[in-house]
Fold these 2 entries.
Entry 1:
Amino acid sequence: MLTVAMVGMGWHSWLFREEMKALLGDISILHPRIVSYDIGREEISKLSGAALLDEVLILGGHSMFPESPELQNSLCRTIGEWAIQNFEGDDFAVRTRKIGELPDTISSRSFEDRVGRVVSSNGIRVNLESPSNEIVIIIAGSNDGDTHPEPFEFGETMVVWGLRVKDWSKESFSGRSPTERPYFKPISLEPRQARLLISLSRVPDREIKAVVDPFCGTGGIAIEAVLQDIRALASDLDSRMVEGTKENLKWLGKECVVKKWDASDLSALWGEREGCSFVFDPPYGRSSWRSADSLDIFLSVLKEAKKIDAEGVVSTMLPAGPEALNSGNNDDIIVMGKKWSELLSIIQEIGWNVHLFCPVRVHRSLVRAIVVCHPAD
Ligand SMILES: C[S@@+](CC[C@H](N)C(=O)[O-])C[C@H]1O[C@@H](n2cnc3c(N)ncnc32)[C@H](O)[C@@H]1O
């Protein structure tokens, strides 16, 4: 067993933590953007598809940032000595990173130098190009400047250190952005967001047997599912979208079932199944065939999903009013044209329990609420 620290991308710390919880289960929060977890080496592969994970370290320790130079020297000694005990191979580099809001007076370089001296004074060679050991020191400040709402407020400065895990590498999303794919429409979901929605539909110890997207559009979600070797069941009412999704999958050397179908009758298409994650961004405004019907279509899909797999999970992204980003009270937020408190009751009546409601800024004037529903008990 290893205790690892996982560092999230800066984009949305709350969702990063939710993604880690969905993938792993109970995590400990060290900082809004850093969580820790005890993991077997063979389990590290569970992290490979994560959308918002930036770095994985074997955790050395963490402490509040020491103010005095003496305490800083002592911390640098502790970090260097811990690292030597845990080295594999015979050379090293020290990398520091700063995250969050930090006073200008904090020099990460000076930490790097001091820890480096502790280690090299033990006769271990510095190798900045391809070190067999990378000591990572993260100086992490407050999250006051975050652009997204954050239930976990943090106003201190802390230091977290560890050794970079070599058998994990960050997922690359480059080369398949919507505009790079052969079939593009402005409705296309970014690969990272599609991947995040799939991750959030995970429940530890539940295997996803199929990702069902009844509004597949250009195939953003189906692509991220099949790239993780998860079966995708995609459909859309627009035959151009159906062909477009197939074209985009083919371009990646992949394929999946894609049908022309009305989502409000989804169970007639897929029947009863186990292990389903219903992952989708529903039509709204111009992408809806009749915009007044958007809410009805969404609710009918929630009912259909229950018929297909009553034990499944729904992970979706719904249009929300701009107040979602700064409202202290979720009840008043307008989601799909309705007060969230009212929509929530309807969702619960259908038999879903809202496990996560989290607003996301898509761009300047566009806000979405990520909503994850688990079966009601
Ligand atoms: C927001 S887009 C989905 C975009 C998609 N996630 C992507 O990455 O391209 C919504 C899709 O719902 C489809 N749609 C609208 N009404 C529908 C219905 N009743 N049944 C099935 N699909 C429908 C539209 O054709 C559109 O492709």
Note: Residues 98 and 139 are 5 Å apart (CA to CA).
Entry 2:
Amino acid sequence: MKKVITAVLVTSSIASLSLAFALGADEATSFKSAVRESKLLSLAAREKAIDLGYEAFKKKVYKESFPGGVYIVNGDTPVADEKELMDFYQREIVAEWKSTKFGIALGQGATTQLILDAPNGNPAAWDNVSKRNLTYCISKTFGSNYTKTLQAIQSATQAWEAVADVRFVHVDSLDGQCDASTPGVVFDVRPVNVGGEYLARAFFPRYARPQRNVLIDDSSFTLKPGKLELAGILRHELGHTLGYRHEQTRPEAGKCFEDKNWVPLTSYDAFSVMHYPQCNGLGDWSLTLTQKDKLGAACLYGPASGSSFKPDSCNSI
Ligand SMILES: [Zn+2]
């Protein structure tokens, strides 16, 4: 069994190496992190994971080592506890493998895009009150990186606020006591050191307060100048906080499939800010919002005031 798994690892590292030439070291690091999870969740790897059993699967899933740390799947998606990880294993590994084995089509077909978190088909987004009061604090423990973080968060929140009727509110009076249990905010933004396992990770609207964190790894502050920068990473992560899933889980991507717990908001968008470039994405590492990202967000949450938006365009994006 170990030998088979090794073969999978070798295949991934070859892909990683070739991409390193095309992208540069920082993007390659991000790629490595994403591939680590996507390879675990590839259809072939699912079969191996079933052979090995849950305990062996659990050992392969990265778990944050700090107090309150959670399991991470799909590159940057937290799984709150062991019960949820077992559910994930049953649902996304075992059930998905059975589905494929018996020829049931994955995903929602070829006409469907920006996609929304929807466990068991139930869409999970912010309600009309919450969406305008997405309060957060930024931990002062960022130290010398605090100002850089603040500016990047503001840039990322403005990108989403410019296109949809959502409002992120920085409660700076709580920055000095900003952690996973801070009351009075919807989520906290804190530094972590996970050694580049991920650049940052966030949460979905349905998560409970202790898991509603945007955690930024130290490696995000040492990126070499290039297209991948903190504001772009946070545009992607804040997309998750609004409920958006990775675009590459759509069957049209043909790579990095995650699961079927989502509903489409737009047609497939290979350029989406929510699409990992290394998963057959066509966007680059600047991670900017595409026209479809903008329309999808406006159709879900309503348009930003003053934006030129035609509601009937939601029928054809
Ligand atoms: Zn992500």
Note: The helical segments are 2-23, 25-40, 43-52, 54-60, 82-101, 146-161, 230-241, 291-301.
